[in-house]
Protein backbone atom coordinates (compact mmCIF):
# COMPACT_ATOMS: atom_id res chain seq x y z
CA UNK A 1 0.00 0.00 0.00
CA UNK A 2 2.84 2.37 0.89
CA UNK A 3 4.57 1.62 -2.42
CA UNK A 4 1.43 2.46 -4.37
CA UNK A 5 1.06 5.69 -2.41
CA UNK A 6 4.62 6.70 -3.28
CA UNK A 7 4.01 5.98 -6.94
CA UNK A 8 0.77 7.94 -6.92
CA UNK A 9 2.50 10.94 -5.35
CA UNK A 10 5.48 10.69 -7.71
CA UNK A 11 3.33 10.68 -10.83
CA UNK A 12 0.64 13.18 -9.84
CA UNK A 13 3.06 15.72 -8.34
CA UNK A 14 5.18 15.73 -11.50
CA UNK A 15 2.78 18.26 -12.99
CA UNK A 16 3.39 20.84 -10.25
CA UNK A 17 6.32 23.25 -10.73
CA UNK A 18 8.30 24.69 -7.85
CA UNK A 19 10.48 27.81 -8.24
CA UNK A 20 13.62 26.32 -6.72
CA UNK A 21 17.04 26.18 -8.44
CA UNK A 22 15.38 27.32 -11.64
CA UNK A 23 12.29 25.14 -11.73
CA UNK A 24 11.85 21.76 -10.10
CA UNK A 25 8.85 19.47 -10.12
CA UNK A 26 7.14 18.82 -6.81
CA UNK A 27 7.74 15.08 -7.17
CA UNK A 28 11.47 15.83 -7.47
CA UNK A 29 11.35 17.48 -4.08
CA UNK A 30 9.81 14.27 -2.76
CA UNK A 31 12.55 12.22 -4.43
CA UNK A 32 15.24 14.48 -2.98
CA UNK A 33 13.87 14.16 0.56
CA UNK A 34 13.49 10.38 0.30
CA UNK A 35 16.95 9.74 -1.19
CA UNK A 36 18.73 9.01 2.14
CA UNK A 37 16.10 6.39 2.96
CA UNK A 38 16.04 4.78 -0.49
CA UNK A 39 19.72 4.43 -1.30
CA UNK A 40 21.29 1.12 -0.33
CA UNK A 41 24.96 0.63 -1.13
CA UNK A 42 24.41 -3.13 -1.43
CA UNK A 43 22.36 -2.52 -4.60
CA UNK A 44 25.51 -1.37 -6.38
CA UNK A 45 27.00 -4.82 -5.92
CA UNK A 46 23.82 -6.82 -6.35
CA UNK A 47 22.83 -5.12 -9.61
CA UNK A 48 25.93 -4.44 -11.78
CA UNK A 49 23.91 -2.74 -14.53
CA UNK A 50 22.38 -0.41 -11.95
CA UNK A 51 25.90 0.48 -10.78
CA UNK A 52 27.00 1.17 -14.36
CA UNK A 53 24.09 3.51 -15.12
CA UNK A 54 24.58 5.43 -11.87
CA UNK A 55 28.31 5.60 -12.54
CA UNK A 56 27.80 6.99 -16.05
CA UNK A 57 25.35 9.65 -14.83
CA UNK A 58 27.79 10.58 -12.06
CA UNK A 59 30.53 10.96 -14.70
CA UNK A 60 28.20 13.27 -16.64
CA UNK A 61 27.76 15.40 -13.53
CA UNK A 62 31.53 15.61 -12.97
CA UNK A 63 32.10 16.67 -16.60
CA UNK A 64 29.42 19.36 -16.26
CA UNK A 65 31.00 20.70 -13.07
CA UNK A 66 34.44 20.88 -14.68
CA UNK A 67 33.10 22.72 -17.74
CA UNK A 68 30.98 25.17 -15.75
CA UNK A 69 33.52 26.05 -13.05
CA UNK A 70 36.90 25.83 -14.75
CA UNK A 71 36.39 26.19 -18.51
CA UNK A 72 33.37 28.31 -19.35
CA UNK A 73 32.86 29.90 -15.93
CA UNK A 74 29.08 29.66 -16.25
CA UNK A 75 26.95 31.96 -14.10
CA UNK A 76 25.86 30.45 -10.79
CA UNK A 77 22.20 30.60 -11.81
CA UNK A 78 22.80 28.57 -14.95
CA UNK A 79 25.21 26.00 -13.55
CA UNK A 80 22.94 25.35 -10.56
CA UNK A 81 20.09 24.59 -12.96
CA UNK A 82 22.32 22.36 -15.07
CA UNK A 83 23.68 20.46 -12.09
CA UNK A 84 20.23 20.09 -10.51
CA UNK A 85 18.90 18.45 -13.69
CA UNK A 86 21.60 15.76 -13.63
CA UNK A 87 21.27 15.17 -9.89
CA UNK A 88 17.50 14.78 -10.20
CA UNK A 89 17.99 12.33 -13.05
CA UNK A 90 20.19 10.18 -10.81
CA UNK A 91 17.88 10.39 -7.79
CA UNK A 92 14.73 9.76 -9.84
CA UNK A 93 16.31 6.69 -11.41
CA UNK A 94 17.31 5.44 -7.96
CA UNK A 95 13.85 6.12 -6.47
CA UNK A 96 11.97 4.42 -9.31
CA UNK A 97 14.26 1.39 -9.44
CA UNK A 98 13.70 0.80 -5.72
CA UNK A 99 9.95 1.43 -6.01
CA UNK A 100 8.97 -0.42 -9.21
CA UNK A 101 9.54 -3.87 -7.76
CA UNK A 102 7.39 -6.12 -9.97
CA UNK A 103 4.97 -6.20 -12.89
CA UNK A 104 1.94 -5.27 -10.78
CA UNK A 105 3.65 -2.18 -9.40
CA UNK A 106 4.88 -1.21 -12.87
CA UNK A 107 1.32 -1.63 -14.18
CA UNK A 108 0.08 0.66 -11.41
CA UNK A 109 2.76 3.19 -12.37
CA UNK A 110 1.53 3.13 -15.98
CA UNK A 111 -2.06 3.70 -14.79
CA UNK A 112 -1.08 6.61 -12.56
CA UNK A 113 0.99 8.17 -15.36
CA UNK A 114 -2.08 7.96 -17.59
CA UNK A 115 -4.12 9.80 -14.97
CA UNK A 116 -1.37 12.42 -14.59
CA UNK A 117 -1.34 12.96 -18.37
CA UNK A 118 -5.09 13.50 -18.33
CA UNK A 119 -4.89 16.06 -15.52
CA UNK A 120 -1.89 18.06 -16.69
CA UNK A 121 -1.87 19.56 -20.19
CA UNK A 122 1.32 20.33 -22.10
CA UNK A 123 1.76 24.07 -22.59
CA UNK A 124 2.56 23.49 -26.28
CA UNK A 125 -0.97 22.16 -26.99
CA UNK A 126 -2.31 25.34 -28.57
CA UNK A 127 -3.54 24.18 -32.02
CA UNK A 128 -5.57 21.22 -33.24
CA UNK A 129 -2.56 19.24 -34.42
CA UNK A 130 -0.27 20.20 -31.55
CA UNK A 131 -3.14 19.44 -29.15
CA UNK A 132 -3.21 15.86 -30.41
CA UNK A 133 0.60 15.57 -30.35
CA UNK A 134 1.26 17.16 -26.97
CA UNK A 135 -1.95 16.35 -25.09
CA UNK A 136 -3.63 13.32 -26.63
CA UNK A 137 -0.53 11.29 -27.56
CA UNK A 138 0.76 11.06 -23.94
CA UNK A 139 -2.72 9.95 -22.83
CA UNK A 140 -3.35 7.52 -25.67
CA UNK A 141 0.17 6.04 -25.57
CA UNK A 142 -0.13 5.08 -21.92
CA UNK A 143 -3.64 3.82 -22.59
CA UNK A 144 -2.18 1.57 -25.28
CA UNK A 145 0.56 0.43 -22.86
CA UNK A 146 -2.08 -0.56 -20.32
CA UNK A 147 -4.36 -2.34 -22.81
CA UNK A 148 -1.37 -4.13 -24.35
CA UNK A 149 -0.31 -5.37 -20.92
CA UNK A 150 -3.80 -6.71 -20.16
CA UNK A 151 -4.32 -8.31 -23.57
CA UNK A 152 -0.86 -9.88 -23.70
CA UNK A 153 -1.19 -11.22 -20.15
CA UNK A 154 -4.33 -13.08 -21.25
CA UNK A 155 -2.61 -14.52 -24.33
CA UNK A 156 -4.22 -12.22 -26.92
CA UNK A 157 -1.01 -11.17 -28.66
CA UNK A 158 -2.73 -10.80 -32.02
CA UNK A 159 -5.13 -8.31 -30.47
CA UNK A 160 -2.06 -6.42 -29.23
CA UNK A 161 -0.79 -6.25 -32.81
CA UNK A 162 -4.11 -4.89 -34.04
CA UNK A 163 -4.12 -2.30 -31.26
CA UNK A 164 -0.56 -1.12 -31.96
CA UNK A 165 -1.09 -0.95 -35.72
CA UNK A 166 -4.36 0.95 -35.37
CA UNK A 167 -2.78 3.45 -32.98
CA UNK A 168 0.27 3.92 -35.22
CA UNK A 169 -2.00 4.71 -38.18
CA UNK A 170 -3.91 7.22 -36.07
CA UNK A 171 -0.62 8.91 -35.12
CA UNK A 172 0.52 9.09 -38.75
CA UNK A 173 -2.82 10.59 -39.72
CA UNK A 174 -2.66 13.18 -36.95
CA UNK A 175 0.91 14.36 -37.64
CA UNK A 176 2.65 12.46 -34.85
CA UNK A 177 5.03 10.51 -37.05
CA UNK A 178 7.67 9.52 -34.52
CA UNK A 179 5.12 7.99 -32.15
CA UNK A 180 3.46 6.20 -35.04
CA UNK A 181 6.78 4.73 -36.15
CA UNK A 182 7.62 3.49 -32.62
CA UNK A 183 4.32 1.63 -32.26
CA UNK A 184 4.47 0.28 -35.82
CA UNK A 185 7.95 -1.17 -35.27
CA UNK A 186 6.81 -2.49 -31.91
CA UNK A 187 4.01 -4.43 -33.60
CA UNK A 188 6.47 -5.98 -36.07
CA UNK A 189 8.87 -7.09 -33.32
CA UNK A 190 6.08 -8.55 -31.18
CA UNK A 191 4.81 -10.49 -34.21
CA UNK A 192 8.27 -11.90 -34.95
CA UNK A 193 8.80 -13.18 -31.42
CA UNK A 194 5.31 -14.66 -31.03
CA UNK A 195 4.61 -16.22 -34.41
CA UNK A 196 7.07 -19.10 -34.14
CA UNK A 197 9.01 -17.69 -37.08
CA UNK A 198 12.37 -19.37 -37.65
CA UNK A 199 14.81 -16.56 -38.32
CA UNK A 200 18.47 -16.69 -39.27
CA UNK A 201 20.75 -13.77 -39.95
CA UNK A 202 20.41 -14.32 -43.70
CA UNK A 203 16.64 -14.21 -43.45
CA UNK A 204 16.90 -11.18 -41.21
CA UNK A 205 18.90 -9.43 -43.95
CA UNK A 206 16.25 -10.32 -46.54
CA UNK A 207 13.44 -9.13 -44.27
CA UNK A 208 15.38 -5.94 -43.58
CA UNK A 209 15.71 -5.15 -47.30
CA UNK A 210 12.06 -5.99 -47.88
CA UNK A 211 11.12 -3.81 -44.94
CA UNK A 212 13.03 -0.85 -46.38
CA UNK A 213 11.23 -1.25 -49.70
CA UNK A 214 7.85 -1.46 -47.99
CA UNK A 215 8.75 1.55 -45.87
CA UNK A 216 9.69 3.62 -48.92
CA UNK A 217 6.44 2.67 -50.67
CA UNK A 218 4.43 3.54 -47.57
CA UNK A 219 6.35 6.80 -47.16
CA UNK A 220 5.66 7.84 -50.77
CA UNK A 221 1.97 7.09 -50.25
CA UNK A 222 2.03 9.12 -47.03
CA UNK A 223 3.69 12.10 -48.76
CA UNK A 224 1.15 12.05 -51.59
CA UNK A 225 -1.73 11.94 -49.12
CA UNK A 226 -0.32 14.83 -47.08
CA UNK A 227 0.42 17.00 -50.13
CA UNK A 228 -3.14 16.35 -51.35
CA UNK A 229 -4.44 17.35 -47.88
CA UNK A 230 -5.96 13.93 -47.36
CA UNK A 231 -3.84 13.10 -44.33
CA UNK A 232 -1.93 14.91 -41.60
CA UNK A 233 -2.35 18.56 -40.82
CA UNK A 234 -1.20 21.99 -41.85
CA UNK A 235 2.16 21.59 -40.16
CA UNK A 236 2.91 18.34 -42.02
CA UNK A 237 1.96 19.75 -45.43
CA UNK A 238 3.94 22.96 -44.90
CA UNK A 239 6.96 20.95 -43.81
CA UNK A 240 6.84 18.71 -46.89
CA UNK A 241 6.25 21.61 -49.28
CA UNK A 242 9.49 23.23 -48.07
CA UNK A 243 11.57 20.22 -49.16
CA UNK A 244 13.39 20.02 -52.49
CA UNK A 245 12.50 16.32 -52.67
CA UNK A 246 9.71 15.44 -50.22
CA UNK A 247 9.94 11.76 -51.24
CA UNK A 248 13.37 11.49 -49.61
CA UNK A 249 12.73 10.57 -45.94
CA UNK A 250 16.20 11.78 -44.97
CA UNK A 251 15.29 15.29 -46.12
CA UNK A 252 12.20 15.21 -43.92
CA UNK A 253 14.31 14.04 -40.99
CA UNK A 254 16.81 16.85 -41.61
CA UNK A 255 14.19 19.58 -41.70
CA UNK A 256 12.27 18.07 -38.79
CA UNK A 257 15.39 17.74 -36.67
CA UNK A 258 17.44 20.71 -37.87
CA UNK A 259 18.52 21.20 -34.26
CA UNK A 260 20.82 18.22 -34.72
CA UNK A 261 22.90 20.05 -37.33
CA UNK A 262 22.93 23.23 -35.28
CA UNK A 263 24.21 21.16 -32.36
CA UNK A 264 26.98 19.66 -34.52
CA UNK A 265 28.11 23.17 -35.42
CA UNK A 266 28.17 24.12 -31.73
CA UNK A 267 30.12 20.96 -30.93
CA UNK A 268 32.73 21.78 -33.58
CA UNK A 269 33.23 25.18 -31.92
CA UNK A 270 33.85 23.67 -28.45
CA UNK A 271 34.46 19.92 -28.89
CA UNK A 272 36.43 19.12 -25.74
CA UNK A 273 34.58 20.83 -22.89
CA UNK A 274 31.39 22.20 -24.46
CA UNK A 275 29.59 25.47 -23.87
CA UNK A 276 28.39 24.94 -20.29
CA UNK A 277 24.98 24.59 -18.66
CA UNK A 278 22.13 26.49 -20.28
CA UNK A 279 24.49 27.97 -22.86
CA UNK A 280 22.93 30.86 -24.76
CA UNK A 281 23.16 31.40 -28.48
CA UNK A 282 24.11 35.05 -28.05
CA UNK A 283 24.72 35.98 -31.68
CA UNK A 284 22.04 33.57 -33.00
CA UNK A 285 24.66 31.69 -35.03
CA UNK A 286 23.19 28.28 -34.30
CA UNK A 287 19.62 29.51 -34.58
CA UNK A 288 20.41 30.62 -38.13
CA UNK A 289 21.77 27.15 -38.93
CA UNK A 290 18.56 25.65 -37.58
CA UNK A 291 16.43 27.87 -39.80
CA UNK A 292 18.65 27.03 -42.78
CA UNK A 293 17.83 23.33 -42.46
CA UNK A 294 14.17 24.13 -41.88
CA UNK A 295 14.13 26.31 -45.02
CA UNK A 296 12.73 29.25 -43.06
CA UNK A 297 13.65 32.92 -43.06
CA UNK A 298 14.55 34.60 -39.79
CA UNK A 299 12.45 37.37 -38.35
CA UNK A 300 15.28 39.44 -36.88
CA UNK A 301 13.07 41.48 -34.58
CA UNK A 302 11.26 38.45 -33.22
CA UNK A 303 14.44 36.39 -32.89
CA UNK A 304 16.31 39.04 -30.89
CA UNK A 305 13.37 39.75 -28.59
CA UNK A 306 14.04 36.62 -26.52
CA UNK A 307 17.08 34.65 -25.38
CA UNK A 308 17.84 31.48 -27.33
CA UNK A 309 19.69 28.48 -25.95
CA UNK A 310 21.98 26.55 -28.26
CA UNK A 311 19.60 24.11 -29.99
CA UNK A 312 20.27 20.38 -29.92
CA UNK A 313 17.07 18.31 -29.52
CA UNK A 314 19.17 15.22 -28.82
CA UNK A 315 20.24 13.84 -25.46
CA UNK A 316 23.52 12.59 -26.91
CA UNK A 317 24.41 15.81 -28.73
CA UNK A 318 22.94 17.99 -25.99
CA UNK A 319 25.35 16.46 -23.47
CA UNK A 320 28.25 17.15 -25.84
CA UNK A 321 27.10 20.75 -26.33
CA UNK A 322 26.78 21.29 -22.58
CA UNK A 323 29.88 19.58 -21.22
CA UNK A 324 32.02 18.35 -24.08
CA UNK A 325 33.32 15.00 -25.18
CA UNK A 326 33.34 13.55 -21.66
CA UNK A 327 29.64 14.31 -21.23
CA UNK A 328 28.86 12.75 -24.60
CA UNK A 329 30.72 9.55 -23.67
CA UNK A 330 28.93 9.38 -20.31
CA UNK A 331 25.48 9.70 -21.89
CA UNK A 332 26.48 7.31 -24.68
CA UNK A 333 27.29 4.73 -22.00
CA UNK A 334 23.85 5.19 -20.41
CA UNK A 335 22.34 4.72 -23.88
CA UNK A 336 24.36 1.53 -24.47
CA UNK A 337 23.47 0.07 -21.06
CA UNK A 338 19.75 0.70 -21.59
CA UNK A 339 19.88 -0.77 -25.10
CA UNK A 340 21.74 -3.84 -23.87
CA UNK A 341 19.00 -4.50 -21.33
CA UNK A 342 16.26 -3.66 -23.82
CA UNK A 343 17.61 -5.95 -26.55
CA UNK A 344 18.02 -8.77 -24.04
CA UNK A 345 14.38 -8.36 -22.97
CA UNK A 346 13.13 -8.17 -26.57
CA UNK A 347 14.82 -11.52 -27.28
CA UNK A 348 14.10 -13.26 -23.96
CA UNK A 349 11.04 -11.82 -22.23
CA UNK A 350 8.26 -12.63 -24.69
CA UNK A 351 6.59 -14.85 -22.08
CA UNK A 352 6.05 -11.97 -19.64
CA UNK A 353 2.92 -9.80 -19.49
CA UNK A 354 5.03 -6.66 -19.69
CA UNK A 355 6.60 -7.67 -23.01
CA UNK A 356 4.75 -5.20 -25.31
CA UNK A 357 5.66 -2.32 -22.98
CA UNK A 358 9.30 -3.42 -22.85
CA UNK A 359 9.49 -3.61 -26.65
CA UNK A 360 7.97 -0.16 -27.10
CA UNK A 361 10.20 1.36 -24.42
CA UNK A 362 13.31 -0.15 -26.01
CA UNK A 363 12.44 1.40 -29.36
CA UNK A 364 11.59 4.62 -27.54
CA UNK A 365 15.04 4.70 -25.93
CA UNK A 366 16.65 4.85 -29.37
CA UNK A 367 14.47 7.72 -30.54
CA UNK A 368 14.72 9.59 -27.23
CA UNK A 369 18.51 9.58 -27.05
CA UNK A 370 18.91 10.49 -30.72
CA UNK A 371 16.16 13.04 -31.24
CA UNK A 372 14.70 14.25 -27.93
CA UNK A 373 15.94 17.26 -25.91
CA UNK A 374 18.38 16.59 -23.10
CA UNK A 375 15.71 17.50 -20.54
CA UNK A 376 14.23 14.03 -21.20
CA UNK A 377 17.23 12.59 -19.36
CA UNK A 378 15.63 14.05 -16.27
CA UNK A 379 11.92 13.58 -17.00
CA UNK A 380 11.41 10.35 -18.99
CA UNK A 381 14.63 8.33 -19.04
CA UNK A 382 14.65 7.50 -15.28
CA UNK A 383 11.26 5.76 -15.52
CA UNK A 384 12.13 3.89 -18.71
CA UNK A 385 15.53 2.92 -17.33
CA UNK A 386 14.10 1.72 -14.01
CA UNK A 387 11.46 -0.42 -15.74
CA UNK A 388 13.97 -1.97 -18.14
CA UNK A 389 16.44 -2.57 -15.32
CA UNK A 390 13.88 -4.22 -13.05
CA UNK A 391 12.55 -6.41 -15.87
CA UNK A 392 16.11 -7.28 -16.93
CA UNK A 393 17.04 -8.70 -13.54
CA UNK A 394 13.70 -10.51 -13.31
CA UNK A 395 14.44 -12.13 -16.67
CA UNK A 396 18.06 -13.10 -16.07
CA UNK A 397 18.46 -16.81 -15.27
CA UNK A 398 19.43 -17.66 -11.73
CA UNK A 399 23.08 -18.82 -11.77
CA UNK A 400 23.47 -22.56 -11.23
CA UNK A 401 26.45 -23.36 -9.06
CA UNK A 402 26.90 -26.69 -10.87
CA UNK A 403 27.26 -25.03 -14.28
CA UNK A 404 30.64 -23.59 -15.37
CA UNK A 405 30.82 -19.83 -15.17
CA UNK A 406 31.22 -19.34 -18.92
CA UNK A 407 27.90 -21.11 -19.55
CA UNK A 408 25.94 -18.73 -17.32
CA UNK A 409 27.46 -15.54 -18.67
CA UNK A 410 25.06 -12.82 -19.80
CA UNK A 411 23.99 -13.12 -23.43
CA UNK A 412 24.28 -9.84 -25.24
CA UNK A 413 23.36 -10.80 -28.80
CA UNK A 414 19.76 -10.69 -29.97
CA UNK A 415 19.87 -13.38 -32.63
CA UNK A 416 22.46 -16.11 -33.12
CA UNK A 417 23.32 -17.31 -36.65
CA UNK A 418 20.72 -20.07 -36.41
CA UNK A 419 18.49 -18.71 -33.65
CA UNK A 420 14.82 -19.57 -33.37
CA UNK A 421 12.22 -16.97 -32.49
TrEMBL record:
The chain crosses the membrane at residues 53-72, 79-98, 104-120, 132-151, 157-173, 180-199, 205-227, 319-347, 353-371. The keyword Ligase applies. Keywords: Ligase, Membrane, Transmembrane, Transmembrane helix. Its main location: membrane. Residues 163-331 form the O-antigen ligase-related domain. It is a multi-pass membrane protein. It is found in: Membrane. The keyword Transmembrane helix applies. It comes from the Bacteria. InterPro entries: O-antigen_ligase-rel_domated. One of its GO terms (cellular component) is membrane. GO terms for molecular function: ligase activity. Pfam families: Wzy_C (PF04932). This is O-Antigen ligase.
Amino acid sequence: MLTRLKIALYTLLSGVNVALVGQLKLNEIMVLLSAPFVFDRRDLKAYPMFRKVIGALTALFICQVITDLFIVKTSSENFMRGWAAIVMSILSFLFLFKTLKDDRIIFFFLCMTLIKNIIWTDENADTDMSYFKFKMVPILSYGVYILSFLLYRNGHWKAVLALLLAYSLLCFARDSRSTGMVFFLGAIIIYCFNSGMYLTRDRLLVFGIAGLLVFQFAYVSYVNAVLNHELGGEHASEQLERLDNPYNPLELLMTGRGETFAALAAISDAPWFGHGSWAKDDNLKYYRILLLYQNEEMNEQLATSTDHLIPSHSILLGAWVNCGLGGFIAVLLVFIFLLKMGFYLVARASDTALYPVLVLMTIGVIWTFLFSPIQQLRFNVPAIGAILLRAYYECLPVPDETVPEEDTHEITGIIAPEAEI
